[in-house]
Design brief:
Helices cover 75% and strands 0% of the residues. The protein is an all-alpha fold and 371 residues long.
Length: 371
């Protein structure tokens, strides 16, 4: 009982409460917008969104939520891991694209199984993440600048590769998309352990892999010497260098692990065969890695919190897609997510308000006791 009371008074509990306040305010603002757009439909459509579309799509919506939560979780961990060590990995989108490239050439070009696809996706993401780490370490280039540049390089490199020397991976019937993994190489699709008939057609082991990786990242950051050194380098590089830690090595290791997580996220998405890559030359980077930034800050930079934050974002997004599109477009989910992101930047302010409220309540109780 004492431990529960101590936890309630701790900063961790306060950060959890502040995240819930951000979510609540975001949903409230979203409902107000819905009501202004169509008062008669707002209550019903809002209920569809907050139930993740389960009332309409049933088990199919549930399996799609879990399938989309897995790559979101990985990209969230990618941003979170780098940020914990003092780096802002804005190159998550490029690492995600390279991860998808590696995963798909593994199962489409090499005709390997899903395990080969996962390994190549992680490898390509890690290598792409290493580039800004090396540039920062040896050339003093900000990881933000190099990450942004590498995002576009990875996108056009992937598109060009599939259009030219990897054109055998592109479905000629469609002409601008890679083959469906299920159709072209059934062994390349992530297994479902026979659970898809109970948990929906989109279900695969991706959610289990993502949760295990989130727990692993939590252990690395909080229970290992490596995690301590990485976090220490982020807090004060001069102090860690004075203490004998290899600060330059730590930067590179951080970006490699961060990139590997983004690559794994892309692998879990495309090997689950949720969609095929469009190889038209365009400037549209995938939205999943950008939402990873949302996951990182909504979870208060906690790897275990990222599990719940990613499921929540996938839940809201799926619910928005099931809403009546002629009245409320699917982008409405992105609007609410954007509001929550904006509010998550004000968590420190929300925490101060909560602390002031607690302090006032404590003072009023003391006054009553004195009387």
């Amino acid at each position: 009982m004492n431990k529960i009371k101590e936890f309630i008074k701790s900063k961790k509990f306060l950060s959890i409460i502040s995240s819930f306040v951000c979510i609540f305010i975001g949903l409230l603002i979203g409902f107000i917008v819905l009501f202004c757009m169509s008062p008669s439909d707002s209550f019903y459509e809002f209920s569809i969104m907050i139930t993740g579309g389960l009332t309409y799509g049933g088990i199919s919506s549930f399996s799609k939520i879990l399938a989309n939560a897995a790559p979101l979780m990985m990209t969230g961990l990618c941003v979170l891991f780098a940020y914990k060590t003092g780096l802002f990995n804005i190159g998550v989108a490029g690492q995600y694209v390279m991860g998808s490239f590696g995963a798909l050439i593994g199962v489409l070009a090499f005709k390997g199984n899903w395990l080969l696809g996962l390994l190549l996706g992680v490898l390509f993401g890690a290598l792409w993440g290493a580039i800004p780490g090396l540039l920062k370490t040896f050339c003093g280039v900000s990881e933000v600048i190099s990450g942004i540049m590498l995002n576009w390089i990875s996108l056009f490199f992937t598109n060009y590769s599939f259009q030219t020397y990897l054109s055998s991976c592109v479905d000629p019937k469609v002409g601008y998309k890679t083959y469906s993994v299920t159709y072209f190489n059934a062994n390349g699709k992530l297994p479902d352990l026979g659970l898809s008939k109970y948990l929906g057609p989109y279900f695969s082991i991706s959610i289990f892999i993502a949760i295990l990786v989130a727990i692993l990242i939590f252990v690395i950051l909080n229970k290992t010497t490596l995690g301590y050194q990485l976090k220490a380098s982020g807090l004060n590089k001069d102090a860690t260098r004075y203490a004998g830690m290899a600060d330059k090595r730590n930067v590179i290791i951080t970006m490699v692990i961060s990139g590997a997580l983004a690559g794994l996220g892309a692998s879990l998405y495309y090997l689950a065969d949720l969609e095929s890559i469009s190889v038209q030359l365009s400037s549209n980077l995938p939205s999943v890695p950008w939402n990873g930034i949302v996951i990182a800050f909504l979870s208060q930079l906690n790897p275990l919190g990222a599990i719940f934050a990613s499921i929540f974002i996938a839940w809201i997004s799926q619910g928005a897609k099931v809403m009546t599109q002629t009245i409320f477009p699917a982008e409405f989910g992105d609007l609410i997510i954007g509001i929550i992101v904006y509010l998550s930047g004000l968590t420190a302010l929300i925490q101060q308000i909560i602390l002031k409220f607690k302090h006032k309540k404590k003072k009023s109780l003391e006054v009553k006791e004195d009387k």
